[in-house]
Amino acid sequence: MSQFDVVVIGSGPGGYVSAIRCAQLGMNVALVEKYNSLGGTCLNVGCIPSKALLDSSEHYHQAVHQFNEHGIELSSAPKINIQQMITRKAGVVSDTVKGIQFLMKKNKITVLHGMGSFVDAHTLSVAGEKETVTISAKNFIIATGSKPASLPFINIDKKRIITSTEALEMKEVPKHLIIIGGGVIGLELGSVYGRLGAKVSVVEFMDGIIPTMDKALGKELQKSLTKLGFEFYLSHKVKSVENKGKKVIVKADNAKGEELTLEGDYTLVSVGRKPYTEGLNADKAGVALDERGRVITNDLLQTSQPHIYAIGDVVKGAMLAHKAEEEGVYVAEILAGQKPHINHHLIPGVVYTWPEVAAVGYTEEELKSKGIAYKMGSFPFKASGRARASMDTDGFIKVLADATTDEVLGVHMIGPRCADLIAEAVMAMEFKATAEDIARICHAHPTFTESLKEAAMAATANRSIHM
After folding, report:
1. Which of the 8 DSSP states describes residue 413?
2. Which of 236, 374, 384, 462 has a C-alpha 20 to 30 A away from that of 342?
3. Which string of b and e fits 294-318 if b means at least 16 CB within 10 Å?
4. Which CATH architecture describes the domain 355-459?
5. Are 116 and 110 in contact (CB under 8 A)?
6. Judging by beta carbons within 10 Å of its beta carbon (0-12, 13-18, 19+), is residue 74 exposed, middle or buried?
């Protein structure tokens, strides 16, 4: 039986990053992955493929709606080749997975493909396609991720009633795509097919979309997506979803109890994700789970067994790839005897629609509920020269700062390249910058980042220059 310093279970962003960092710190590492392909949900059926399709669909949408205004004339109308889009997406995934395989070899990490199940607290059985091997380790890191959640009365047939996984492999552009859930995943995939011409209807239980983010962002994103042709049914509780052959019937009740009936050719169930621990046999290792199936950990990400750690989607907190990566590095450095730092409050959230949405820190709603006095400054992209030049004027940036100390407490943005712009806010907040600090830093002109500077200036004695 092979023995390792560390065995990482799961090869998603949390798992493979943790394995690499452990190897860099001199540990003998094994990485166990259930599937033949490394990279987990993110690389195979999540972050990477969805962004590939989002980019392809945005190029098509620009060709149809913006090229003429830019002075680019096409001899014929652009056509959609959905199969080529899917093929290109598959190529992006393949190249990324190969990159992970290379990194495993470079760092001399033993990769075992098969279902990892605990035999006891120090032993793991790995059931592969051809054989089952047993390995032991001084420490384990559980990084088994999550899978799409559903509602108990919905039968996901993977044909007409689908999850995000099937939405990445469509053979045709839906005529009418009904999305159950107004969160990140549903809106991103809805954007893909909405740009390609599908009618998109979103049914959301809460009174706004992206409900975990600042309410102003959800309202602004709803305006932008409505211009794309989206229809929104907020405060609606879905009660039935039926496959009728080539159509799907969705019924929901609004807050008054009035019934809504929608008929589409596909329904995407996007009501969140749930931790994946099936087959792990956590109980045999003495690892406790909570009522939602998440692995229970302390602040050091140790489970009920001190030598077994857990990271990423399988533990509490936001289900984000970059959160899993940070936790993976954190645990690796703890095992090496270091004193690493991770601030879960400053892990940014991003929605890759267009305009993009990004946020870090407290929302206005949270500050109000906590009774924290704050100042707010905002700046619209329509007042940005760079945004006007690129025809990306939807959205704004909002900076929230402590009313007394001026320390930045939250930054919320919706607009062009906000997925990248948010990093400046995260860095500023990690160093406890004030709104005035950001306002006094020179930003290149013309850039989208100037809008963050202007929002910070607006939060500092309301002195925005261009508003």
Report:
1. E
2. 374
3. bbebeeebbbbbeebbbbbbbbeee
4. 2-Layer Sandwich (3.30)
5. no
6. exposed
Q: 462: pLDDT confidence band, cut at 50, 70 and 90?
A: confident
Architecture in CATH of 2-148+274-344: 3-Layer(bba) Sandwich (3.50)
Please give the C-alpha separations between residue 234 and each of 180, 199, 250, 357, 444, in angstroms, as whole numbers: 11, 17, 14, 19, 40
pLDDT at 129: 92
**Is residue 1 predicted with pLDDT exceeding 80?**
no
The DSSP line for 68-109 is TTTT---SS-----HHHHHHHHHHHHHHHHHHHHHHHHHTT-
445 is catalytic: yes
Residue 218 predicted with pLDDT over 80? yes
| Domain boundaries along the sequence of the chain | 2-148+274-344, 161-271, 355-459
pLDDT digits (tens, 9 = 90+) for 281-328: 999 999 999 999 999 999 999 999 999 999 999 999 999 999 999 999
pLDDT in tens, 45-91: 999 999 999 999 999 999 999 999 999 999 999 999 999 999 999 99
Token pair belonging to 209: 């979309």
DSSP classification of residue 278: T
DSSP 8-state symbol, 313: G
Say what the pLDDT of residue 388 is: 97
Choosing from 59, 236, 445, 466, which is the catalytic residue? 445
Alpha helices in 287-341 (DSSP H): 321-335
